[in-house]
Design brief:
This protein folds into 4 domains: 49 residues, no CATH class; 75 residues; 84 residues, Alpha-Beta Plaits; 55 residues. Helix content is 46%, strand content 13%. It contains 7 helices and 10 strands. The protein is rod-shaped and about 160 Å long. This is Kinesin-like protein KIN-14J.
Length: 306
């Protein structure tokens, strides 16, 4: 069994050995190095020398040349110590490559964002142009519709629409008109009436309206003015027995008629007592003494009824 070079006692299986030419062996307690430190040396244990051998190697008169074996051991030790540095260099290089890759991707992303911002700006301008064009077209269409509505209503400016008139078999509408003229106190002349006929009956409608077209607008307006002076019952002007009241009104187009109905539906609850059609517009007043009337020409104007 080997003995300790310091205390000369036998060594256990695990001990410290110097790598010098003397091959000194020690207990951990005699070696001058702690056991934990020795174990941490790992492969460097192959180059470790005890204090005695190191002192001899550093002696002032020690000019002995370094042996090839010692030189190889020294170089191996240096190489081993530099190995982690090479690993770090590889890691740094990998990290550098990753950073360059991410930098390139970031530049690509910025470039794409700039392109998208440019496209967004271009699309926004295009949308604005389309919206302006659409508004212009809508205004043009609205104007055309208004002109068509006015033209259609103008074609009826000599007409009167009579509602509530009982349907009598074999009725003579010209005679009915003569009776109405007598009650509202206007001159009657058959030549003043160009056409008179009853409109087709619709489902759910009691008595279909009668439309009379005068030869001149002035005569029609006189009838509409004087009709306010009398309440006329159907049985007073026909051979029927119905006691329903009849009404003489301007012959409106379906569109104007619907707008007039909507105006009354929304205006009555808000206190508008006077609602009538006049010269291609609907007028609304809360009181007969109001100086200014609300003018309704389309559905948007209904918002003015406050």
């Amino acid at each position: 069994m080997p003995t300790c070079s310091s205390c000369q006692e036998q060594l256990p299986l695990d001990y410290v050995q110097c790598t010098s030419s003397l091959q000194c062996k020690y207990h951990f307690g005699c070696s001058g190095i702690q056991e934990s430190t020795w174990r941490k040396l790992g492969s460097q244990q192959q180059t470790w020398k005890c204090q005695t051998c190191r002192k001899q190697a550093k002696g002032p008169d020690n000019n002995a040349p370094v042996s090839p074996n010692e030189l190889r051991q020294f170089m191996a030790s240096v190489t081993e110590k530099l190995a982690p540095v090479e690993v770090i260099k590889d890691t740094v290089q990998d990290l550098k490559s990753s950073v360059e890759f991410m930098s390139n991707k970031y530049d690509e992303l910025l470039s794409r964002i700039e392109e998208m911002e440019h496209e967004k700006h271009a699309n926004s301008e295009l949308i604005n142009q389309l919206q302006l064009s659409l508004k212009a077209k809508e205004k043009e269409i609205s104007n055309l519709q208004a002109r068509m509505r006015e033209a259609e209503q103008y074609s009826r400016n000599k007409n009167i629409e009579i509602t509530g008139l009982e349907v009598v078999k074999g009725e003579n509408l010209m005679s009915v008109m003569e009776n109405i003229a007598r009650i509202i106190n206007v001159p009657f002349n058959e030549n003043d009436i160009d056409v008179i006929h009853r409109l087709p009956s619709r489902r759910g409608e009691g008595h279909s309206p009668v439309v009379a077209q005068f030869t001149c607008r002035k005569t029609r307006n006189l009838w509409l003015k004087n009709k306010k002076k009398a309440n006329i019952l159907s049985c007073e002007v026909t051979e029927g027995k119905a006691v329903t009241r009849i009404y003489l009104n301007t012959h409106l187009t379906p569109e104007w008629k619907n707008l007039l109905w909507q105006t009354k539906q929304q205006g009555r609850p808000k206190g508008y007592k006077l609602i009538w059609f006049q010269e291609n517009k609907i007028m609304a007043k809360k009181d007969v003494n109001d100086e200014r009337a609300i003018i309704i020409k389309n559905n948007l104007d209904l918002e003015d009824l406050v």
